[in-house]
Structure prediction request, 265 residues.
Amino acid sequence: MRSGNQGNPVLDIRSLSAAYGEVTALDRVSISVNRGEILGLIGPNGAGKSTLIRVVSGILKAKAGEVLLNKQNITSYTPSQRARVLAVVPQARQLGGAFSVEQAVLLGRTAYLGFLGKPSKLDLEKTYWAMEQTEVTHLSERKLAEISGGEQQRVLLARALAQDTPVLLLDEPTNHLDLKYQVNLLTLLKSLVNKQNLTVLMAMHDLNQVSGTADRVALLVDGCLHSIGKPEEVLTPENINETYQTKVESFNHPRTGKHYIFPMM
Ligand code: ADP
Ligand code: MG
Prediction:
């Protein structure tokens, strides 16, 4: 097992433990993510992926260990300071409330809003840009509660992009999306990472989407880091069989050479 700690990480998760009451959800997990890197977080249901994202986003307190964001402990940031560095796309849930799509995306600009919260020209530009990138512009006047799960998922991404941060955390962002929007979202993310040198930590469900998108993959099981490395190093039939109790075969795509797995049914 490799620790994955190398170079000069933007996000340095050090021996992090977290619990809900008596239930340990993360047990001494160490992962670092470098600038310009997409790190995919995988693991069976209940492995601790969302918990890790919650602690790194500063909404859940760690029981032990620490998270350094640009070398500074995440707990020492004010919410507004944090919101200028790190944006989160949470695991999809039913969004309620009377907000319109445009108002919800504009919320991504909260940390930048001036006196009386009036949006500037830049706030509106970033908001419209994010809505275009995520293909929700045509929904701008619709109420959040009155759009589909996939559309809500894209609004959550738009809100995070409007925040215009160098670090993005995403929790299963392709859930609820049909194939076209899954591909569009992952393509958009890769192009933003390339253009803006973003640092991305993304929990993902689909192992082949992880292989196609992430530079490195961290496999969590029962709150512990099982393995971390390049997709072909982590997504081996042995590891998948052991951790997901599922038999798979692996192969390399004939054209791209990317590593993919196929379940044996
Ligand atoms: P994943 O996102 O990998 O599916 P989670 O981080 O959501 O896993 O969950 C990790 C563990 O913590 C699981 O055992 C889960 O049941 C437990 N858990 C998650 N959220 C809560 C909560 N709000 N209260 C109590 N236990 C929770
Ligand atoms: Mg989860």
Notes: The mean pLDDT is 92. The first strand starts at residue 11 and ends at 20. Residues 7 and 23 are 33 Å apart (CA to CA).
